[in-house]
Amino acid sequence: MATQQLSLTLVIPVYNEAAFLPGALETLFAELAGVDAAVDVILAENGSTDGTADVGRRLGKTYPNLRVIELPEPDYGGAMRAGFLAAEGDWVVNSDIDYFSGPFMARVVEIADEADVVLASKRDPESDDRRSPLRRLATWTFNQVLRFMLGSKVSDTHGIKALRREVIADVAANVISRQDLFDTELVIRAEKKGWRIRELPIVVEEQRETKSSLLTRIPRTLKGVWKIRKALRASSK
User: Fold this and answer.
1) Against a cut of 0.85, is the pTM above it?
2) Is the dihedral of CA 185, 191, 197, 200 positive or negative?
3) Are strands 117-121 and 161-164 parallel, antiparallel or unpaired?
4) Exposed, middle or buried by CB within 10 Å (0-12, 13-18, 19+), for 35?
5) Looking at residue 190, what is its pLDDT?
6) Which CATH number fits domain 7-235: 3.30.1440.10, 3.90.550.10, 3.40.50.2300, 1.10.1740.10?
7) DSSP state, 181?
8) Res 2: pLDDT
9) What's the CA gap between 163 and 115, in Å, rounded?
């Protein structure tokens, strides 16, 4: 009897990306053609003012396995959460519109029986991180904060990742974070619950400079990590 093909849902939060979407999706779907799985894509639009959702729906005529969900307010983590909960694939993958990887998704398919969470680690010794030294330092520092404050042993929570839908069903409802830290808390809660985590090397080559400022994110991130620490301690009592 033939083995049923694995299904993956790729969730991409988008905000004011009307001009960037057409070219990015052309590249994305070209990469997805090399993934041996049934793949659908959710654009989780949140609070855009430039017609991003309309552009996404129009592009859905070109890419039938593309759909758009809309949130009224700009909230990256909230958009990610909504996309995760709307996903129907066996695995849910998260990336940004300017940083994705078909080869990573193909590797997830290959090792799907060996893990429950798969992380594309920018800090893996075999990774090729082409970002600026400042961005690489920020990733290292953030990981040290997570290790010290939350006891996490993974090397990188803030990048492309894939999770079994069962993992999301198990831990997503308890995640308190929005904005930047939803995915980080989701991974750490999965780690605390004992789900099998596998980290893979990745080529890190973003298609443009990041939109957000590191300086403005630092206080918000530290405050968010402290809130996660308090929530995890409260749930363990």
Assistant:
1) yes
2) positive
3) antiparallel
4) buried
5) 97
6) 3.90.550.10
7) S
8) 45
9) 9
pLDDT along the chain (237 residues), means of 10: 80 96 96 95 97 97 96 92 94 94 95 97 92 89 93 92 96 86 94 96 77 68 91 82
Q: What are phi and psi of 50, to 5 degrees?
A: -115, 15
Look up residue 151 and give its two tokens. Answer: 């006891």
Q: Which two tokens stand for residue 123?
A: 């800090």
CA–CA distance, 162 with 105 (Å, rounded to integer): 8
d(CA 56, CA 123): 33
Cα gap 233→230, rounded to integer Å: 5
pLDDT at 212: 58
Domain ranges of the chain: 7-235
Give dist(CA 53, CA 44) in Å, integer: 9
Quote helix, strand, coil % in the chain, to nearest 5: 45, 20, 40
Tokens read off for 174: 């308890």
Q: Per-residue pLDDT tens for 50-60?
A: 999 999 999 99
Q: Is the dihedral of CA 81, 85, 87, 89 positive or negative?
A: positive
User: In whole angstroms, what separates CA 113 from the centre of its chain?
Assistant: 20
**pLDDT score at 211:** 57
